[in-house]
Amino acid sequence: MSQTWRPTLIAALCAALLLLAGCDGGGGDEDAGLDATLDGDAGEDAGEDAGEDAGEDAGEDAGEDAGEDAGEDAGEDAGADAGEDAGEDAGEDAGEDAGEDAGEDAGADEGATPSYGLSLLPLDGWQRGPVRVDLVAMGPAGELGDVGLSFSQDGTAFVPATALPGSLAGCHGLGLSPAGVPGRCVWDSKADLEVDAQVWLRASLRVGGTVRATDELGPLELHDARDFDRPGLVAHFYGPGASLLWLRADGSLEDTGQDLATPERASLVAFTADGRFGAVLAEGDGGVHHTLTPFAVARDGAVSALGGTLDIQALDLMGSDLVPAPDGSGLWLTYRTGQGGLFFLSFEGGAPALLEDAAGGHLLLPMTLPAGLAILPDNRRAIVSGGALVIDDPPYDLTLLDLQSLTVLDQQVAGVGSLADTVAVTSDGALALVPAADPWNDPPNPQVLVVRFDGDTISSWTSVPVVGAARVAIHPADGAALVTSWDQDAVYVLDLSSDPPALVQTLTVGLADHLTCVREGSLAGLCLVSSVAELVPLRLSPDASVVRGTPLGFGGGNAGIVYGAAIQP
Fold it and tell me: Which of 163, 201, 482, 560 stands 20 to 30 A from 547 (CA)?
């Protein structure tokens, strides 16, 4: 049997082995998909070698058999060539298939391994009440993530943080993206703490019930004492601006002798829900409210102007009510001229600015002459009074809103009147009190409406006879309410435990108008009533009893006349 083909075959095998040795280890640590693809190439080469060997052996046998019949040398050469070719083809096919499958499987495994991340943005300054925690969550596109928040007072032991009602939309059901999506969780810190504290916050991103990522902030200075000295502001309609005062923890009032200057006649004042900012609304000639003076509150209670005066006269604004957003982000402003509506003064990042809609305008929700506004406990719905002076069909004077989607849920004609400048809602959301305040009517509206809700509708209303009702406030425990009447020089006391509420007491207070009340701590139910040139403290109890305190005066003459007032919540 001839052996002339063996040197050629040995040389080919050596060359193949050298090639394999040269490829070994190239990029093997970069990733699993790449490793598997490289393994597939090696499999292909190995398959070729195995096929060649098998083909050579098969060809050798076939060649020997053929050589016996038709010539040993020719048979061996022909059989060896044919077997070698067949073996190479089979080996290449098998190697390619095995390598491709292995590379594809490993690459698919790598692609299916999800990547998650969670980052909490730093918080500025001291925190109080509703603590807004902004975040960025990352994950595979199409997945939904929920962010939970916990807090600690030692940086080690964490307990769940109570979410502010209505705020979960900002941190639940986040549509994740590898590039990250923004979210916001709002911690109702007053529900968990009653003292000033240093705290740490921890956020956890859950997908499908499994924690995928966490992040922490802290320590943070939290100012949540329920009983403390509260700063306040009193607007003087004919004076130089707003007076700064203290409501001490013992319930006494103290004038600081300092003023927050406003360019026009100050009328309304409000603090944000976290007590860190606020604004004074002032009006110019002709009774048009046309300036906002934002202010900041320092940790020690000092009040200072923030960012200058915001001129809103060019926007045709005539403000009627300033109401804090529950999450502390800013103040809602009702606009009461012509085709009015709702505006929002934002303090995000400590920079006061009127929010804009998608078209660049500031009117976020058009309405007809809105006056008083109150936000229901779910922090989504709001009830608005007013509208009776505009000729509509019909002239709605009660409107239920969705503040999150900025849509009207329900409207009713209840005979409220055009001057119902305040609305108050019980803490359980069962009912709202709306003063039907229009003393120039003949006869005047002798009533306070008791409005009830059924989900997203205004379901019913009844009335309590109260002559000349102007403004209203409800005790935090929901058992009683105060109603002012500047036309009657009176403050009425309503017992809310009966159905309908009953008028149980009348107090004489000259030109009684605006009300501002404490809603937490041992001073809960203490209300300050504006009366000519002084503030009159009235301590309301849940059983509808009232104790009158010592008034705080601001001097004689027009400059001392008191209009709106507000105290830090």
Answer: 560
Peptide bond into 394 cis (omega under 30): yes
pLDDT by residue (tens digit) across 246-274?
Answer: 999 999 999 999 999 988 789 899 999 99
9-17: Cβ within 8 A, 24+ apart = 9/56, 12/52, 13/49, 13/52, 16/45, 16/48, 16/49, 16/52
DSSP annotation of 229 reads P
For residue 116, how far is the Cα from the chain centroid? 22
Of the candidates 538, 556, 536, the one whose C-alpha atom is nearest the C-alpha of residue 547 is 538
HSE-CB for 472 with a 13 A CA cutoff: 33
Q: What are phi and psi of 31, to 5 degrees?
A: -165, 165
Number of C-beta neighbours around residue 521 at 10 A: 16
Q: Using a cut of 0.90, tell me whether the model's pTM lies above it.
A: no
Written as six digits, the tokens of 199 are 């705290």
Give the pLDDT confidence score for residue 316 in this predicted structure.
56
| pLDDT bracket for residue 478 (50, 70, 90) | very high
Integer Cα distance of 410 and 388 in angstroms: 16
8 A C-beta contact, residue 192 and residue 124: no
Collapse the DSSP code of 189 into the 3-class scheme (helix H, G, I; strand E, B; otherwise coil) and give the result: helix
Locate the DSSP E strands across 424-468: 424-425, 431-435, 448-454, 457-464
Residues 6+ apart with CB under 8 A from 463: 436, 447, 448, 449, 450, 500
Q: Which of 64-68, 343-347, 388-392 is least confident?
A: 64-68
